Amino acid sequence: MIAVAIRSFNILATRSTRAPVTAKLCDRYRVDAPVRIAIVGAGIGGLSLALALHEVGIEAEVFEQASKVRQLGVGINLQPHAIKVLAALGLLPALDRTGIRTRRMIYLTRRGQPVWDEPPGLEAGYDVPMFSIHRGKLQGVLYRAAVDRLGPNRIHTGQRLIGLREVGDGVAGRFERRADGETVEVIGDALIGAVRPAPPSLLSKLVSDTHPPMCRLWP
Ligand SMILES: Cc1cc2nc3c(=O)[nH]c(=O)nc-3n(C[C@H](O)[C@H](O)[C@H](O)COP(=O)(O)OP(=O)(O)OC[C@H]3O[C@@H](n4cnc5c(N)ncnc54)[C@H](O)[C@@H]3O)c2cc1C
After folding, report:
1. Tell me, which fold does domain 4-68+157-209 have in CATH?
2. CA of 78 to the centre of ligand 1 (A)
3. How far apart are the first and last CA of the chain?
4. Ligand 1 mean position to 137 CA, how many Å?
5. Which of 79, 126, 172, 178: disulfide with 158, CB 3.0–4.6 Å?
6. Which residues does ligand 1 sit against, CB inside 6 Å?
7. Is the pTM of the predicted complex or chain greater than 0.85?
8. CB contact at 8 A, 203 and 51
9. pLDDT tens, residue by residue, 188-200
10. CA dist., res. 34 & res. 42, Å (int)
């Protein structure tokens, strides 16, 4: 059975301790009310976005389809442009506890012949390091920071986006709740998909239903 519950976000940027920043931001973008944002996907992209919005005083809620944020993946390299963003979010100490500051990057053939050899990050003259880190552990760093800063009730797991519609000046996202199969509708000023790949049914809806499209898409 599908039951529909409509609820508004319980988030209001004016509650933030950074309200003056929000006011400036709202003014800059001609928003005359607190902005409420729903982020779909608690991957590296969605969690980083939630933290970045929080940093400028805009509160967001994250909706993840998996029932739990599990630390999966392989080792990845975070280039200085990514680290610059994470450093601005105050995450350098957590990255130092979790990953390795990469001092040299060498690509070799399977016979050990060098293909590429260069100093990265600080060694290359950037003002931040490059990091080598396990993807899942990076996600863990971002998840813990998001839970700490946004609050545990702002990160929803087990909620899969299955549809959306425009509501006045805002948007309503329809989520299927994994626990009981019920459908919950969440209304906000914007819904940002940080999912890969973007569900084709939603992509085609966004492109066909709205002229011009209501968002730019990076599928
Ligand atoms: C083998 C490999 C090596 C890589 N190496 C590097 C590297 O060295 N450096 C680098 O910078 N990048 C690397 N990458 C890429 C990097 O891992 C990805 O760019 C990054 O993880 C993408 O993050 P994301 O948040 O966009 O997507 P994801 O991490 O995929 O997160 C998307 C989240 O959205 C959720 N979701 C999906 N659909 C829905 C829905 N309908 N409703 C609700 N939630 C939904 C998913 O469950 C998931 O948790 C590598 C990737 C791979 C596979």
Report:
1. FAD/NAD(P)-binding domain (3.50.50)
2. 13
3. 32
4. 13
5. 178
6. 40-46, 63-66, 74, 76-78, 135, 160-161, 194-196, 199
7. no
8. no
9. 888 998 887 666 6
10. 23
